[in-house]
């Protein structure tokens, strides 16, 4: 089925001018960028977005990193978009990511791993709604 998933190009990637190269990966694999904006997240916004990780040991560092520079938040649309994007990104830890994936090719570390993507359709709907109103998405 056609799905929408939330993608974030993280500060390590915007800092290195990689947004175009990352977007090309999505488009080459058939995902359509149907919503996109560049934001400087506030601490409160980053904490709210990653709220499910609040109890994890890496939460504080994750939030610090996510507000260390601008991010590009995007809605990707396509057939099985949630899983398709996870395959395009590769494993969370770039050391474990398949060659040819965004994280294998661009990520600096498990924290500075260049992109975020929703991990389920349920979370995708929640995460898209966190950043976008329906008027900002054109499919
Ligand atoms: P992301 O898909 O954005 O979801 C949570 C993020 O936490 C993850 O990518 C990583 O960038 C970051 N993170 C930092 N340390 C860890 C860790 N030890 N395990 C998992 N995620 C981590």
From TrEMBL:
Reaction(s) the record says it catalyses: a ribonucleoside 5'-diphosphate + ATP = a ribonucleoside 5'-triphosphate + ADP; a 2'-deoxyribonucleoside 5'-diphosphate + ATP = a 2'-deoxyribonucleoside 5'-triphosphate + ADP
Active site: residue positions: 116 (pros-phosphohistidine intermediate)
GO CC annotation, single: cytoplasm
Record SMART domains: NDK
The keyword S-adenosyl-L-methionine appears for this protein: no
Subunit text: Homotetramer.
Family classification: Belongs to the NDK family.
UniProt protein name: Nucleoside diphosphate kinase
Gene label: ndk
């Amino acid at each position: 089925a056609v799905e929408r998933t939330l993608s974030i190009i993280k500060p390590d990637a915007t800092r290195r001018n990689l947004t175009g190269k990352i977007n090309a990966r999505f488009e080459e694999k058939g995902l359509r960028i149907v919503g996109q904006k560049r934001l400087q997240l506030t601490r409160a916004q980053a904490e709210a977005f990653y709220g499910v990780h609040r109890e994890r040991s890496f939460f504080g560092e994750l939030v610090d990193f996510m507000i260390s520079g601008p991010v590009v938040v995007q809605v990707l649309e396509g057939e099985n978009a949630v899983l398709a994007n996870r395959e395009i990104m590769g494993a969370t830890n770039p050391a474990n990511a398949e060659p040819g994936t965004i994280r294998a090719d661009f990520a600096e570390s498990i924290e500075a791993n260049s992109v975020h993507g929703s991990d389920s359709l349920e979370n995708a709907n929640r995460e898209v709604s966190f950043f976008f109103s329906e008027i900002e998405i054109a499919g």
